[in-house]
Amino acid sequence: MSFIDCFRHEMVGYFGGVPVYHPLQKISGDFSCDETQLVLGGGCGEHPALIIKNPLASVAWFLRSEIDELAQIAAQDSEHPFNAVQGKWEYLVEKYDNKNHIEHLEFCEWSVATYKYFFERCTSLAMLNPFFEESEQCFESWLIMGFGEFIFFAMPELAAEIMEQLENPYDYFGPMRFNNILIVPKNAPVYANGGNAFTFL
Hints:
Layout lengths: L8 E7 L2 E6 L14 E3 L9 E3 L2 H21 L6 H15 L4 H4 E3 L4 H11 L16 H16 L5 H4 L17 E3 L18
Antiparallel strand pairs: 1-2, 1-6, 2-3, 3-4, 4-5
Helix pairs in contact: 1-2, 1-5
């Protein structure tokens, strides 16, 4: 039994083999979070928790990373639909993206050994889209954008304030860049006392 099992929560999936949860109530103690956030790891008795503190800003961070590429594609075709929305997207990203790792991620009771082990796991080819140390972005940015991408496509309700202002937001994207969270199938049993977050699968 892990710390998070003392509170209502639902299973989202697995990131590098570590469970990802969505709290269904306010949690306090070993770590603190609420229904507006996601948690990687269940705390004491499982894996030390990593709180995705601001899903809204994480989505904005992800979109910031995508806009330049989308704009380059759209620039080659004056009738590309992204040309009509680029300005609004840039405005919203600037409004909601705080550009501060500390405001996005909270590592709760992580030791140096925990961080090292998790980093090695994320750079492993066992990950579908691993982090590459040669990348221009830092590891924390990669984590934020990965969770931002996941929230954008799979749990937009956690970033409703920005998602509701994006008309047809999924019309402009190709294959996902990060895509590292394994969702548990609808009928598969889960330990989370709030069940599976994705009952529509």
